[in-house]
Design a protein that fits this description.
Order of helices and strands: EHEHHEEEHHHEHEHHEH
Oligomer: single chain
Largest sheet: 5 strands, parallel
Subcellular location: Cytoplasm
Subunit structure: Monomer.
Distance between the termini: 12 Å
Number of strands: 8
Protein name: Multifunctional fusion protein
Strand order of the largest sheet: 2-6-1-7-8
Family: Belongs to the cytidylate kinase family. Type 1 subfamily.
Mean pLDDT: 94
Bound molecules: cytidine-5'-diphosphate
Shape: globular
Number of helices: 10
Function: Catalyzes the transfer of the enolpyruvyl moiety of phosphoenolpyruvate (PEP) to the 5-hydroxyl of shikimate-3-phosphate (S3P) to produce enolpyruvyl shikimate-3-phosphate and inorganic phosphate.
Strand content: 15-25%
Length: 219
């Protein structure tokens, strides 16, 4: 039997991975995985339980038995909607801290692979093409300049009525990118077999078309 096709979209913070992945998945009628939300939920669950964000064993145990679910674009932790809370800067920074821990990443591996189901999957994150689905049908490295990414994140937070400061957003984003790229386990990097998509001067529509045009017809 032919394997279920996967589109892997990896890239730095606020490059548009979530937005583009969701639109591509909707256009194809495929499933969608926002892998970053898993790391965000582990960070939130850890902070709530009073676990230090470098306590690998405790966080891996939390990750392995994460009482999280996804429904209608909402994220539930213990049945409570935490969709807005996991997008806070505290959870963004927390996610990139728990994400350096190999045992946490290992605990989330099968959970991510389970999303591969017919007719196809669009998955986004940092290590989708390198670790989670190295045999992906199409690999995209989605990026944009740090300034435009910070502006996008700022606009996004404003629209949600959340507090934001442009200067600290840009700084957090650059620190997080550096941590994601420098870590020994599953670092963010453009793979030799990934197609570069730099959206610094592109809108969402153009980015979505770019990906759809590259989905192999015979998959
Ligand atoms: O998932 P990731 O953090 O990479 O980015 P996102 O949450 O999808 O946020 C990207 C934001 O930038 C969204 O508000 C998009 O509407 C906007 N945007 C984009 O995604 N792509 C562009 N080419 C231009 C703007
Ligand atoms: O939306 P944004 O791109 O800012 O972040 P995200 O994709 O929700 O991921 C939050 C953090 O989780 C990242 O800074 C990474 O440290 C981590 N992450 C990861 O290590 N591997 C993934 N596949 C996805 C996220």
């Amino acid at each position: 039997a032919r394997t279920v096709p996967v589109i892997a979209i990896d890239g730095p913070s606020a490059s548009g991975k979530g937005t583009v992945a969701a639109r591509v998945a909707a256009a194809l009628g495929w499933h969608c995985l926002d892998s970053g939300s898993l790391y965000r939920i582990v960070a939130l669950a850890g902070m709530r339980a009073g676990v230090a964000l470098d306590d690998e064993a405790a966080l891996a145990a939390l990750a392995a038995a994460l009482p999280a679910s996804f429904a209608d674009g909402r994220v539930l932790l213990d049945g409570v909607d935490v969709s807005a809370e996991i997008r806070s800067e505290a959870c963004s920074v927390g996610a990139s801290k728990v994400a350096v821990l190999p045992a946490v990443r290992a605990a989330l591996l099968d959970r991510q692979r389970d999303y591969r189901a017919a007719p196809g999957l669009v998955a986004e994150g940092r290590d989708i093409g390198s670790v989670i689905f190295p045999d992906a049908t199409l690999k995209i490295f989605l990026t944009a300049s740090a300034e435009s990414r910070a502006q996008r994140r700022y606009k996004q937070l404003m629209e949600k009525g959340m507090a934001a400061n442009m200067e600290s957003l840009l700084q957090d984003l650059q620190e997080r990118d550096a941590r994601d790229a420098a870590r020994p386990v599953a670092p963010l990097k453009q793979l030799p077999d990934a197609v570069l998509l730099d959206t610094t001067t592109m809108d969402v529509e153009q980015a979505v078309s770019f990906v759809l045009e590259r989905v192999p017809a015979d998959r």
